[in-house]
Specification:
alpha+beta, six-stranded mixed β-sheet, five-stranded mixed β-sheet
């Protein structure tokens, strides 16, 4: 794999105390002084680095006291443990780096550090148990040293500090110290994850033995030698050279990996995790009794621990590139992977990395990554099958690749990304060739010697990201470590703290997270001390770039303030994501993913203002709310206070200025936006700068500033489209819009119109600009002779339209109407006339109104129908206003009769015709005044109708009385309008002349007959017959069209005998058919009449034969003596047999005599006569006898007695009555007479 050209990051550190110098820089980019390719280096400088670095050396003065140097380091949770070459152990708190405890346990360099129990995976929400327990005494720390000792103590002593003491000064109790002397240098130690319970640890060193030690439960504080002092030791492996690294698996402590000079070994441990069902919660795992099975001898899951404990399951050989005698020098790095600590997204791809375990599914296996020399392995370790006792597990290499460096540290950053701490020497590029040559010659000693000499020329270490899929380098940063040229590959150490997730599935959910939390809980009396306020939510930084920038971690900068304020320091927002610690003997460098704030700062430093603006727009929280010196981006806002009546306006209300306070993000966006603008303008990119203005400028003051900038540069066009189209608050000064409009008025008038009509469209009378100022500018342009604007031209029409629009906005409709008439814009003109009642404004120029829609071409070529359609709306307006005085017909006629009016007579005809039609059809408008309106123009209308609409002339002559007959006759005679002339002659009594005109001129028999019929003059008929007797065509016409006016027999007899008449026979046949039809119709009618009369007579006789009983009673209805039916109802029932069975109608309350109008009562004794029409009369009223009421009653009694028994008297009396009623009902007869009179 070809090496990438990394960028150098120099985390400068204070030299050890003996060489302390000015060291204020925390990080600086190293420049390549000897580089030849400057352009390529500049391009690389444009790439943003993946991580940011902070040098912590300045805060670790106590570690480097007395010339001491760091030999190894370990970070976990919120603690950091440093081991030095003088044998000192420093325990520090993170992120404050406050020393918690320092003790001296060895007399030589410390080679490794181990803790128990291992830190559990991070959780977003701590349980109650985790929050309550914060004692570091539950954590055991073991260290190994060249002096052959292994020392294990609690992280902090359990002794309560005495008054005046601190935890840092309280000594450990003897029972807390476990010390083991192996007599040979120990290079690696690893405590059992369950050390507090099983007291087991593994160790190995130059003796080549992997030793399993079981320490006494009480410690004891005495020196323990191998095989003595009560300790129980077991050699698990030996004979393959020095052991340099030991590591327990993390997800479940089932495996142990170690390295010696021959390769990598993996074996099963003594711990078999209990079987945990899916869905089991964290609390259930903590209380699971099966945890006791992790203690040796107990076993779990149905298999005793002894059957699988400490049995090797795999071995991997040492890389060929490392000679056997140098295997210990190239210290291998082992890293068991806990999937619960991996982010599932690449750094920079999201605002925060997710640790959702469902995203990573490795199944029932563990992952181990190994870096040794220049070789990298990724190994899957499987547990094997419980049914097969021989199959206790196996390992599988999934990835292996070579690098161009020696690996000083390795960590799996994401499931697809490896983090390497690379160590290189000056001759690394030549080393493979030399090694091959020496191998061929068998000169291993010379190769080793060369290698040892070349160590003195070490290069600057690099922090690299490697893609596992492609084995290619993604990014690399050079770390300027102090005295790096003299350091070896084993002098560097890489420590990583996982990020805190937003959401983490429960440890035993369907993610296969293992039961590491249960180990922790069982070991520390279910506690969680690694999660604290210092933990932060993970966040992937920006995309990796081959560069690093200067900057210090905010968490470490806050540490001092927090300590002074006695506040527990915590990781800040800038330390989101995974935290990386790189240590060398003289330096400690902290690296973490770059936050959005760092991303913003980097973009600002590299003048990437566009990306910075969009970043703040999307994530406003990246801006520090304490940002100062941005007051220029605040501005006054006018607040209008309404009057008492609730009406508010700028003129009628009080205005109170106030300062609008924008958020820091908004103000920073505007500041960066203007930097973006300045950069574009300096580059001459005015078009993009205009678009940027639309996006970044938000206040009227800044808009005003930048519009003037564009105007001064002559680039108004580039910013016009982005100037606000709605009113800002406070408003943008109108002069800004006016200078833009003035520019387009001079150089681009169509754009000027577009701005006025569409872009900056007025809202009623409200505009963004001063309309009066624009009107004056347009008028000056129209009156300026230098502009050569010709009337009728495109620019002239455009500007006139703009003026009309502006006058409308200024509430000057008369001036606007004048412009629309000049433009012949009928739509707008009539809208103004009707909206503002501007009829008087056009009273002196009626012809222009009529011709608004008539073009010059229409004047010369359009037919009358089209002209009538084009003038319909103005004619309607003139007709509507005819009787209102302003546009009287006399005024209209006078103006249209002027010779200068195009189409004057035609327009006059259209107007008068419309007015006449309106007067004759609409009786609700001007019909009452139409005689006075049309009377003066009768002769003119005859002339115009004769000229333009002859079919209308005859109806006009027939219905109108306002024309002179002689004038009309002269016009019709001059134009040979015979039908019209015939009508006029008939009106003057010259019927004979009219008839002869019809006969001689029209030769129309039918019209002649119709004329004679309308006149109904026998002399006229004789003249017609006399004239027609020598004309066969007329004779035939008379025969075909004659009706009842002429006797057909008389007509036939007058036909000369010798005169041939073509079609005589058909004409006679037609007469005969018509008479036959007429006779048939008459006969049918007579037959129908006879049947109707017969039915009526039958009904009458039936009614007459049927007697009707009268019973007259009081006004009340019903009762024995009451009126059962009204007289009229009885008569109707008697006359209609079909109504006999019908229900009786309601009884009339009052029956009166048809003559005297007196009501009939129950005491009525006289004779009553009822007619079929339902009218009833007293007999005395019909006969006309005048008697007093008493006489009438007596006569009635006498009459009844006189005629009761004499038939002759009855007949005589009936004859008298019949004579009186022969003419029928008197009331009905009078009604018929009244109708005839009316």
């Amino acid at each position: 794999m070809p090496p990438a050209s990394p960028q150098k990051a120099e985390p400068t550190t204070p030299n050890p105390p003996s060489e302390a110098a000015d060291d204020d820089e925390t990080l600086r980019a190293a420049s390549d002084v000897e580089g030849d390719d400057d352009e390529e280096e500049e391009e690389e400088d444009e790439d943003e680095p993946r991580l940011k670095y902070t040098r912590l050396t300045k805060s670790l003065g106590g570690v480097y006291r007395n010339g001491d140097a760091v030999s190894t380091t370990l970070v976990f949770g919120d603690r950091m443990v440093l081991g030095t070459h003088n044998g000192n152990i420093h325990i520090l708190a993170l992120p404050s780096l406050a020393p918690l405890r320092t003790y001296h346990a060895h007399s030589a360099s410390i080679t490794s550090i181990s803790i128990s129990p291992p830190p559990p995976p991070p959780t977003a929400v701590q349980s109650r148990r985790q929050k309550d327990v914060t004692h570091d005494r539950y954590i055991s720390v073991a260290t190994s040293s060249i002096d052959g000792l292994v020392c294990a103590v609690p992280l902090l002593p359990s002794t309560v500090p005495a008054p005046g003491q601190t935890l840092a000064t309280v000594p450990y109790a003897k029972t807390e110290i476990t010390l083991k002397n192996f007599k040979r240098p120990i290079l690696a130690v690893a405590l059992s994850p369950n050390f507090r319970a099983d007291r087991i640890f593994l160790s190995g060193g130059l003796a080549g033995n992997l030793v399993l030690s079981v320490a006494p439960a009480g410690g004891g504080g005495s020196w323990m030698t191998l095989g003595m002092g009560g300790a129980k030791d077991t050699v698990l492996h030996s004979g393959e050279g020095a052991i340099s690294a030991i590591a327990w698996s993390r997800e479940s402590p089932r495996y142990v990996a170690w390295t010696n000079e021959q390769g990598i070994k993996i074996m099963r441990s003594h711990i078999i995790p209990p079987t945990v069902a899916k869905g089991t919660t964290t609390e259930e795992v903590m209380g699971n009794p099966g945890i006791a099975g992790w203690i040796p001898g107990m076993g779990s899951g149905g298999r005793p621990a002894g059957e699988v404990a400490w049995k090797r399951i795999s071995a991997i050989e040492r890389p060929e590139s490392i000679p056997e005698e140098l295997a210990a020098l190239h210290k291998p790095r082992l890293e068991w992977i806990d999937r619960r600590t991996l982010v599932t997204t690449e750094p920079g791809e999201s605002a925060g990395g997710s640790l959702n375990l469902k995203d990573i599914d490795w199944g029932d296996k563990e992952k181990l990554v190994v870096g040794w020399g220049g070789t990298v392995w990724v190994i899957n370790v499987f547990a094997g099958s419980e049914e097969d006792e021989k199959n206790i597990g196996w390992a599988q290499i999934t990835h292996i690749f070579q690098t161009d460096c020696a690996i000083s540290g390795i960590h799996m950053y994401t499931p697809s990304l490896l983090l390497l701490l690379a160590y290189m020497t000056q001759s690394d590029e030549d080393a493979p060739a030399k090694s091959e040559g020496s191998s061929k010659d068998g000169d291993d000693d010379s190769s080793s010697a060369r290698f040892r000499r070349e160590r003195k020329t070490a290069l600057i270490p690099e922090l690299r990201f490697i893609d596992l899929e492609t084995s290619e380098e993604v990014s690399a940063d050079e770390l300027m470590m102090s005295r790096s040229e003299g350091l070896a590959v084993g002098d560097y150490h890489l420590g990583v703290l996982p990020a805190m997730p937003d959401i983490v599935e429960p440890p035993n959910s369907e993610g296969g997270s293992g039961i590491g939390a249960g180990i922790w809980a069982a070991a520390v009396n279910p506690t969680q001390i690694f999660s604290s306020a210092a933990s932060v939510i993970t966040s992937a930084g920006s995309e990796s770039r081959r560069n690093s920038v200067s900057g210090a971690s905010s968490a470490f900068q806050r540490a001092a303030k927090d300590k002074r304020a006695r506040i527990e320091p915590s990781w800040g927002e800038d330390e989101k994501g995974t935290k990386i610690f790189i240590t060398s003997p003289y330096d400690v460098v902290f690296a973490t993913e770059r936050s959005q704030k760092d991303h913003l700062q980097w973009m600002l430093e590299h003048e990437k203002y566009q990306e910075a603006w969009h970043l703040i727009d999307k994530h406003p929280e990246v801006v520090d709310p304490d940002t100062k010196d941005l007051s220029m981006y605040d501005e006054e806002e006018r607040k209008v206070v309404a009057d008492r009546d609730g009406y508010s306006s700028d003129s009628g209300s009080s205005i109170q200025p106030s300062v609008r306070r924008y958020s820091s993000a908004e103000k920073e966006k505007r500041r960066i936006g203007e930097l973006w603008l300045q950069k574009q303008i300096q580059a001459g990119d005015w078009a993009d700068a205009g678009a940027t203005c639309g996006a970044v400028l938000g206040t009227s003051s800044r808009w005003e500033h930048w519009v003037w900038v564009f105007e001064a540069a002559g680039k108004i066009r580039e910013i016009t489209a982005y100037i606000p189209t709605t009113q800002l608050s406070p408003p943008l000064p109108s002069v800004i819009y006016e200078i833009v409009l003035a520019h387009y008025l001079r150089y681009d008038r169509p754009k000027f119109k577009e701005l006025l009509y569409d872009t900056w469209k007025p809202e009623g009378t409200r505009t963004l600009y001063d309309a009066r100022t624009i009107v004056d500018a347009v008028l000056r342009t129209l009156n300026n002779r230098e502009d050569e604007i010709k009337p009728g031209g495109r620019d002239w029409s455009l500007l006139q339209g703009c003026l009309a629009k502006l006058y409308t906005v200024l509430a000057e409709p008369r001036n606007a109407l004048k412009r629309y008439i000049m433009l012949k814009d009928a739509q707008e003109a009539f809208t103004l006339i009707r909206q503002f009642r501007l009829v008087d404004a056009v009273a002196d120029d009626i012809a222009s109104i009529l011709l608004l829609r008539v073009s010059d071409d229409d004047v010369n070529n359009a037919p009358i129908d089209k002209l009538e359609e084009l003038t319909r709306e103005p004619l309607d307006l003139l007709v509507d206003e005819a009787d209102k005085g302003i546009l009287s017909p006399s005024r209209v006629v006078t103006q249209l009769q002027a010779p200068s009016v195009p189409l004057g007579p035609l327009l006059l005809f259209l107007y008068l015709r419309r007015l006449w039609h309106s007067a004759s059809t609409d009786t609700t408008t001007i019909h009452s005044s139409s005689p006075s309106l049309l009377a003066p123009f009768g002769d003119l209308m005859v002339s115009l109708f004769a000229e333009y609409d002859r079919p209308l002339l005859l109806p006009f002559l027939r219905t109108s009385h306002f024309y002179t007959l002689s004038t009309a006759s002269q016009i019709c005679e001059r134009r040979s309008y015979i039908p019209e002339l015939v009508h006029l002659l008939s009106k003057t009594g010259q019927t004979k002349r009219a008839l002869f005109l019809i006969i001689d001129s029209l030769h129309d028999v039918a019209q002649a007959i119709a004329f004679a019929r309308t006149q109904d003059d026998p002399d006229l008929w004789r003249d017609l017959l006399d004239y027609s007797m020598d004309k066969p065509a007329f004779i035939r016409g008379l025969l075909e069209n004659v009706g009842t006016s002429i006797d057909p027999i008389t007509l036939v007899r007058r036909i000369p005998a010798a005169l041939p008449v073509p079609g005589l026979k058909p004409a006679l046949q037609k007469i005969l058919r018509e008479y036959g039809v007429q006779w048939s119709l008459c006969d049918g009618v007579a037959t129908a009449m006879r049947s109707e009369v017969a039915r009526g007579m039958d009904r009458l006789r039936h009614g007459q034969r049927r007697g009707v009983k009268f019973a007259v009673g009081s006004d009340g209805a019903g009762g024995a003596g009451g009126l059962g039916l009204s007289i009229a109802a009885q008569l109707e029932k008697a006359m209609d047999p079909l109504a006999a069975d019908a229900p009786p109608p309601p009884v009339a309350r009052h029956e009166v005599c048809g003559v005297c109008r007196n009501s009939f009562t129950g005491a009525e004794r006289g004779t009553l006569v009822a007619f079929a029409c339902c009218h009833v009369f007293h007999l005395r009223c019909i006969t006309g006898t005048a008697r007093a009421e008493e006489e009438a009653a007596a006569d009635a009694v006498a009459e009844e007695g006189a005629y009761a028994r004499t038939v002759g008297a009855k007949v005589t009396h009936a004859a008298l009555i019949r004579e009186k009623v022969r003419e029928g009902c008197g009331v009905c007869r009078e009604a018929r007479m009244a109708e005839i009179i009316v």
